[in-house]
User: Fold this.
Amino acid sequence: MFQDFKMGPEAKKMFLLGFKAQMEGRLEEAIDYYQQSLDLEETAEAYTFLGWTYSYMGLFEKAIDECKKAIDIDPDFGNPYNDIGSYLIQLQRPDEAIGWLQQAKEAPRYQTPEYAYCNTGKALEQKRLWPLALREYQEALRLRPGYEPAQQAIEELNRRLN
Assistant:
């Protein structure tokens, strides 16, 4: 998962400790490790994951700010665009989200574009644009067959529409 992340060994060590702490729910510790990674070397990855940690705490505006720092460092990295879109969806701002998600879809360095398609579907559902949302979910499944969030969204949308 992290093999293409662009950072030196010490920064990566702190980053990985941050990721482990985050996945174990030790969010303040994760923030500290990500910050240590950034102190050693500013990377788009560490800013993005720091933002993700803030999102776990419900601090979506702060998370968005961190993702924007990531984009400033590496505009080719797709994760922060998708994450901003996801946070804006959670803030009930689908119109803003869609532009960020489109940038994620077009990012040269993004291994999981199905996330951006699925999130675009969520944004379009918030706008009550059901057929367009369905197309986004279907594209997510085309990119990654069996992608459960897209499958569930399609099933739920079909139940609602039928």
In short: The domain at 76-162 is CATH 1.25.40.10 (Serine Threonine Protein Phosphatase 5, Tetratricopeptide repeat). The chain has two domains: 1-74, 76-162. The mean pLDDT is 95.
